[in-house]
UniProtKB/TrEMBL annotation:
One cellular component term from this protein's GO annotations in UniProt: mitochondrial matrix
Name of protein: BolA-like protein 3
Similarity comment: Belongs to the BolA/IbaG family.
A Pfam family that the UniProt record links to this protein: BolA
Region forming the signal peptide: none
Domain of life: Eukaryota
SUPFAM superfamilies, alphabetized: BolA-like
Listed PANTHER family: BOLA-LIKE PROTEIN 3
Length: 109
């Protein structure tokens, strides 16, 4: 359900980011590479990921991210334990951030 909600909002998010961002500043380019880096680290540490979304919510400076993950590793775990898995996976990356928002969902696949 959460995954479908994110998919519905994706076209609007992309249009808004193009309208606001223009051609892209150095900060935005850095944030995109940081988003990709965070996604790769998560996929390596949690191979059961069925959905992952990493977005820079700091206005382009790469200091705060929102992460939504659906993974098989979360099945049977409390929300706190799910979030601990994510934060332990991103331990070094989080040290460089101002903040992080985490949304987790156990995979039903």
């Amino acid at each position: 359900m959460f995954r479908n909600f994110i998919k519905v909002l994706a076209p609007y998010r992309d249009k808004l980011s193009r309208a606001v961002g223009g051609n892209g500043t150095a900060f935005e380019k850095n944030a995109v590479s940081k988003e990709q880096q965070l996604t790769e680290v998560l996929r390596k540490s949690l191979p059961g990921i069925t959905y992952v979304s990493v977005q820079d919510i700091s206005g382009g400076c790469g200091a705060m991210f929102e992460i939504s993950i659906e993974a098989k590793e979360f099945v049977g775990l409390s929300t706190v334990k799910q979030h601990r898995l994510v934060t332990s996976s991103l331990k070094y990356e989080i040290a460089e951030m101002h903040g992080i928002r985490i949304h987790t969902t156990p995979s039903s696949d």
